[in-house]
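Re-run requested by the PI after the first attempt was lost when the workstation crashed. Everything re-entered from the original request form. Ligand of interest: manganese (II) ion.
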Amino acid sequence: MSLRTVIIDDTTLRDGEQSAGVAFSIEEKIDIATRLDGLGVPEMEIGIPAMGEREREEIQTLAGLGLNARMLVWSRMREEDILECLNLGVGFADLSMPVSSQQISLKLKRDEQWALATIKACVKTAREGGLSVCVGMEDASRANIDFLLKVAEAAQSAGAERIRFADTVGVMEPFGVLETIKALRSATDLDIEMHAHDDLGLATANTMAAALGGATHLNTTVNGLGERAGNAALEEVVVGLRQLYGIETGVDLREFPELSARVETASGEPVGWRKSLVGKRVFSHEAGIHVDGLLKDLANYQGVDPAVVGRSHQFILGKHSGSSAVTSVFADLGLVLEKREAAAVLVKVRQFVVRHKRSPETVELLALHRQLAI
Ligand code: MN
């Protein structure tokens, strides 16, 4: 696999906000956009103009921040919606059209010929209005590949520069994605963007498979925020592509914890403690053999270097701790424990965890240690 780059198009501010019950204030949007830009995220999708005057004003505000990132707006493939995308200071729109027969027939009550004709007409309108265009192929994962190729052809002939392959309902798996994106890649010159959902826990895997298959652009969201089970997580995609495939995104995640926390608060959706790369406990170690191994050499139990996401290993004392962890944690607190003392503290720690269903905090540890002296 040769070293190459892909472009992250983060949609925290569009599909992320589209999660049930999530609404960002303009201050939160500005902060999130600025932080994304600061990490080097090259593209971001920032809203849906047809939603109304307020949304359009906020899009204009974000576009006026003077950030480096290229900004996109999202729109249905409808003339009147596209007109709302003009004159907002954003030069790029994703125009979304259902492409599965399920959605064309049973949602739109139309047919494929109508869809192709509408794509041509709408892309033309957008281009005449000065917009660059990505044709968003909604529900592409359940569509016929031959029809997707017709959509790509129509999109290109009307002046689009990109197609978006949306696994709208989150039902694909990586091997199928690889094959499908390869087929699209060999049939069109357009840029190809992957948009994955995590309904089966495969959004990141599918997004990475798309990159391997030749996708040039990838949709992500911070913390994997998004409708239902969420979208592909920015942090997982960036770290996974680099570590597993040597594919670079130019995104530097060392300041990511602040952005993650900001999105967590602004979305009102707590990040699970076990959420990869950002969860509170994913770099914490308690088990005696693991801590002992890490203290001897980090590589013994380190799969991902926490420093790439601005974090570090933590040793937590708990039921499965051994005495070397106790000694190490207390040494960090400035207390040198003798072997017998460490063993006695460990007994107290185990009792504490069983009683409280959590590990002791620093002050509680010190209190447990003081009890020994009594
Ligand atoms: Mn989506």
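Saved to the shared folder this time. The mean pLDDT is 95.
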